Each structure stands twice: as structure tokens, then as C-alpha cells.
Amino acid sequence: MATQVQGYNATTGVNALTAEQAEFYQRTMLERLLPELFFMKYGEKKNIPKNSGAVTSFRRLNSLAVSTTAITEGVTPDGVNLDITKINATVSQYGNWTKISDFIDLVGLDPLLTEASELMGENAGESMDIIVRDIIAAGTNVLYANSKADRVSIAATDKITALDILKARRTLKRNKVKPISLPSGGKGYLAFIHTDVATDLMQTQEWKDQNTYVNTKNREDGVLGKMYGIYFLEADNAPKFAGQGATGADVYGTIIIGKGAYGVPDVEGSSKPEIIVHKAGSAGTADPLNQFNTVAWKSAFTSVRLNELCILRYESGATL
Q1: CA 249 to chain centre
Q2: What is the structure's pLDDT at 29?
Q3: What was the pLDDT predicted at 199?
Q4: What is the pLDDT of residue 1?
Q5: At 253, is the secondary structure helix, strand, or coil?
Q6: Between the CA of residue 72 and those of 69, 76, 78, 227, what are the distances in Å?
Q7: Cα-flanking dihedrals φ and ψ of residue 209, to 5°?
């Protein structure tokens, strides 16, 4: 992760923060950034070489029809054409920044820059998380709670159930979706679940029966528990469709994925946010009185759904 800094240097006459200060600010950003990246963590990473353009493509070889006809001796059967699906993705740049008055120098600049770096790291994490989430949540494979026909029919009482989880599992299995391997060694489908929905799920007897004794290594990945081969990751940024249900009820989207569900391409690691700190005076004539310091983050990346069948959005109500 790169750091760009400017300030005063007595030798060159250029304003610059010291290397030690720059490293400290960057480390502070990381401490608040990493826990926020729920959705980026499980996307398939694809690197775009620098100076190769902003567009990349993923290629999927679709399954062939099964071959059940015996080969006639001495006769070469007809071959088949490969069915290839190409999916393009275009990387975009995102970022945010804030301006700090030089007057803060008089009352302790470093603590404020540190806090601003932390805040920017948090903002980067949440922003990137939501960007990826919204792309995934726009998938076309949907299951509605309690056999409802659509989102507007869902009431707050249409809460998550063990039966619906089994239906979701059945859909993914029928679609031949492969499980995901977790860093802790677990293997299964992964569900990003909102805290409100997780609260209802953990009160069901089926959940209690299957999560009395759990693999503590899974908790290291942030996994709440496991049910019917699906690992549940409690994500505060899981989709919530406020007021879109029956009689204005909030509707929640639990995103369940398998292997190859979505990708996160970036240019030479640029999806890792860069923190940029400029001290007062670094802007030259744009800051003639050396009045302003700035702290910012910047990232270039995107996300793309690779296979609609590998993503299932389960919509339900929740107890508030």
C-alpha cells in the first residue's frame, strides 16, 4: 500500500512529512480498514497489469451435454463446440478527502491527523464494501421468505426459517454450485446475513441444535455459525430494503454464495486503498498562506457477478 506525503524539508525547500510519520498514518488506516471488507474478501481476485486499460474480462466454460451414446468401433464420433461465456468488467476509481486548518498545528496537529487517517480508513472500508455488496445484491436469483411471491408481499412476520434455509441450499445444489473453502479449513456455502435477521435465526431450535458446539476456528473468519452446510457471516452492511415490504415493512436480503459467484478485478493491487496526507503549504500558490492540511483515500477497483446461479438473495422480514 503506497503513501504520498508532502510538507517542509529544510534541504530541498519542499514541505514533507517524515518517513516515520507517513508509515504511522498508513498503519493507522489499516487498523480500521480491514475489519470492514466483508464482501470484497470472498470475491475472486483478478489482477489487471498496469497500462493495460481499465477493462478486463472473465471467461467461463459452460457445462457440456452429457454423452450417453456408445462409440461405434472404428468410427470417430462428432465433436462438440465449447460454450464460452465472456464477462467484462470496467475498473473505476473511488475516494474521499477532508481539509484540516493549519490552526490545528497550534493545538496538536498529529492527533487530529491520526484520527482523520483512522476515519478515512473506516470510510474506505465501508464505501468499498457497499459498492461490492450492491453489485452482488442485484443478482437475478431470488428466494422469498415464507413462499411469498415478491418483495412487496413480505411482512415483518415473514422471518427466516430452517425450511427456507433448506430451500436455499436445495437451489444451490440443484444448480451444481460448488462450496467455498474458508481460511479456517471449513467448506460450504457462505451467507452474508444482516444482524436483525441473524437475531431471528439464532432463536430457532434448529440453529441451537446445530450450533451448540462449533468449530472455534470458524469464528476467526467472522463466521456466526453453520447450518445445513451454509456458513453465516454477520455483516452489518448486508442489504436492507427499508419500507419496501407489505404495509411498509423493512425487507432484508441475505446473500448466499458459492464458489465462482463474483469477481473483484483491480489494476496492480490498486484496490488496496491508498492514504494521501498533504501538509499545509504543499499546494503552492493554491494555498498561499499555508493554511490547509488534507487527508484522503483513493482506490481503483470494481466488482462483477460471474455466475447468477452461484448467488442467491434470500429476502425476509425481521423482528425489530
Answers
A1: 26
A2: 60
A3: 95
A4: 43
A5: strand
A6: 9, 8, 12, 48
A7: -65, -35
CB-count exposure of residue 313 (10 Å: 0-12, 13-18, 19+) = buried
Q: What is the C-alpha to C-alpha distance for residues 13 and 15, in angstroms, rounded to an integer? A: 7
What is the bridge-based pairing of β-strands 311-316 and 142-144? Answer: parallel
Contact 310/259 with Cβ under 8 angstroms? Answer: yes
Q: Residues, the chain, total?
A: 320
Cα→Cα distances 258→163, 171, 179, 194, 261, Å: 19, 11, 5, 18, 6
CA angle 90, 93, 94 (to 5 degrees): 130
Q: What is the pLDDT of residue 10?
A: 37
Query: Is the entire prediction scored with pTM above 0.70?
Result: yes
Give the whole-angstrom CA distance, residue 253 versus residue 314. 5
pLDDT for res 151? 97
Q: What's the pLDDT tens digit per position in 177-224? A: 999 988 777 889 999 999 999 999 999 999 998 887 655 555 656 788
* Residue 223, helix vs strand vs coil: strand
Q: Spell out where the chain has E strands.
A: 3-6, 44-48, 55-61, 84-90, 92-101, 142-144, 180-181, 187-193, 223-227, 230-234, 240-241, 251-257, 262-267, 274-278, 292-301, 304-305, 311-316
Q: What's the distance, CA 235 to chain centroid?
A: 10
- What is the separation, in whole angstroms, between the first and last Cα of the chain? 41
Cell of 203: 432463536
Backbone angles phi, psi at 250, to 5 degrees: -75, 140
Residues of the chain with pLDDT under 70: 1-37, 48-49, 51-53, 102-111, 213-221
Please identify which residue in the block is written with the cell numbers 498508513: 26
Q: What is the pLDDT of residue 52?
A: 66
